[in-house]
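Note to self: keep these together.
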Amino acid sequence: MKKVLSASLIALLVLSSCSALQGTSSTSNAASAPVAAAASTSSDGVAAGRALNALYKQYKADGKYDYTNLNNALNTIQLLQSCQGLKTNAKNSTYWKNFATGLILGSNNLVTTQTSGTITNSLSNMISNVDTEKLKSAETNTLEAIGTAKQTASSISNILSLFK
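Structure:
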């Protein structure tokens, strides 16, 4: 049973990673966004925005953030992996601005220009409390993914509640 869950997680992660990677480069957004905006977009921000959008859709459907939902756990891992740069670029305002721009694009405007600063700060606070080394093992371990999702459940719920 554990092997089946792990295999399922790996398959879902690979599929979600492939779909998350499609269109995450700044050049692939050029057709749907002005060239200047595309040039200053972070692929990490786009991936984080997509994960946030998926988490929010499920949040709306369930009325809460359910970290035991495998899709939520996978989207949480994707979100956390995408936010690692916020931790390592804490004082790089250009990185943060580009991340926020990508966040808006990736979330399909769920995150707006007005809320992008608050959301980016919340994501930064959340990732600062996560052992990013555990994220590597969460990619291949269902229990680790759910554990990480549980650890961040309060932060994610707070962020998702900002979109109401």
